[in-house]
Design goal:
single chain; about 250 residues; alpha+beta; two-stranded antiparallel ribbon; 5 helices
């Protein structure tokens, strides 16, 4: 049996000295040329993010400023009005219970109460222009209007609502406390001897007494100090400021 001769090993030609690919210093000699740090493996594909373009990448979340969100609406505080509600409930309960008892007594073959007989006779015999009928109707109208006003208005006029920094937090400032804080600020002005401050829901009235310095200068300083004080109170609806400065009365 004849064995075929083994093929001779092929020898690749040695490349010329000038045709060898260049490599970076410190690089891996076994890595391909495309793995160079400065080379782009996909020349036609755009990079994830361009540091020179200024636009963020798609996978980077964009944060919005919380100050751009609309501020929550500030409303006045509503009064509980326990006393009017308790008085009205007691009157309605007492009148309804007494009337129900009298109707049940009449149904049980008993005579009606004297007050109901007199009321029925009076309503049947008195004319509409009678004095007591007019007074009773006027009293009922006034009571009904008072109840409607209490139901439609918030009340708590002594509490001034403050600005809402958070949607779930409500704060209020008492008018007397605000007046005391503004009074202390006005007393720090040079030339002011005494101050009276009255704080309302829409206006702050200040009356100061100055025993030296010009009145115009004292008024300007008081207005500046109280304007800053009102701003520091952080009220939702800052009231208007009115300042009056006068000299103390002369002693006789």
């Amino acid at each position: 049996m004849t064995t075929p001769p083994e093929p001779s090993p092929r020898h690749e030609p040695t490349p010329p000295p000038g045709s060898e690919p260049t490599r970076a210093r410190g690089g891996d000699p076994d890595s391909p040329p495309d793995s160079h740090p400065g080379s782009d493996p996909h020349p036609g594909s755009p990079p994830d993010s361009d540091p020179h373009s200024g636009s963020p990448s798609d996978d980077v979340p964009v944060l919005t400023d919380a100050a751009d969100d609309p501020a929550p609406r500030v409303r006045r505080f509503w009064a509980v009005r326990r006393i009017p509600a308790a008085v009205l409930a007691a009157l309605v309960l007492g009148g309804a219970g007494l009337l129900l008892y009298d109707v049940a007594a009449v149904r049980a073959d008993r005579t009606a109460m004297a007050w109901r007989r007199e009321l029925a006779d009076g309503l049947a015999t008195r004319p509409l222009d009678d004095t007591w009928v007019v007074l009773g109707a006027a009293l009922a109208v006034v009571l009904g209007l008072w109840l409607l006003v209490l139901a439609a208005t918030p009340g708590l006029r002594a509490v001034l609502p403050m600005r809402r920094e958070h949607a779930d937090v409500r704060a209020g400032l008492d008018r007397e406390a605000a007046a005391l804080a503004l009074r202390d600020r006005a007393m720090e002005v040079s030339g002011v001897q005494s101050v009276r401050v009255r704080v309302g829901r829409a206006k702050v009235a200040v009356r100061a007494v100055s025993h030296f310095r010009a009145l115009d200068e004292v008024r300007a300083d008081v207005e500046t100090a109280l304007a800053a004080g009102i701003d520091e109170l952080a009220l939702a609806h800052p009231p208007a400021l009115t300042v009056r400065v006068a000299r103390p009365p002369r002693k006789a």
